[in-house]
What does this fold into?
Amino acid sequence: MTVSGPVPPGTGWPEDPAAAGTPVAKDPAQVRALAAGAGSLAELAARQSVCRACPRLVQWREEVAETRRRSFRTERYWGRPVPGWGDEHPRVLILGLAPAAHGGNRTGRIFTGDRSGDVLFASLWRCGLAAQPTSVRAGDGQRLIGARMAAAVRCAPPANKPEPAERDACAPWLAAELALSADLRVIVCLGGFAWQALWPRLAAVGWAVPRPRPAFGHGAEVPVPWPHPPGTGRPADLLVLGCYHPSQQNTFTGRVNDAMLDDVFSRARHAAGL
It folds into this structure.
């Protein structure tokens, strides 16, 4: 019989970054402290993956992991926050909204196991940013090349709509991911939610974000300078790119297609020097 419910950390799930003793954030103040105290992206991912700071999101993600979708009834669901994943020294960061209830919340890896991810990983593979054209489950051999993925909100939200307080509670995880990615050259925002969530976090890390904040659009390009003295471990500029989210709604209606995605990720790869 398949075990249901969230996976306890350190029990052998493929690519689980956490251990039984990984510290758990239980409120927004603890998120801020644990995010700021992480010394590496690996340690940060471990702490992200056990967070319990947002009661509504905890209840929802664990309920989904318990009940499951009929087509996945024989599978165990991850049922925890989905941490950042990919290269430990990324030059490209791909930022989405939140994990899908039966995608990342099931597989434990961002954009893995759902149709949005099918389209996204195929494009990343064609553009030289992923080792395989598919991403089915954690431990399937997929890896990102010079790139990393993250979500503005790390838990699957009901109706795919996080509340503003949940977005804000999760924000320090993203700020810490940006701060620890010293080689970062390009950020690709998948959709308007990720685009809006990014700018305050860049400012918190020290980037000179433009004012007023740029409007989101597919193919939008915004150079963001690092306004501090040379030798501080940062490039001279960061390039932020806008990209329509490869959701089923967007791909089925033709709002975004393979060529449009490939254009953005080819641009990202070139700008990052990969």
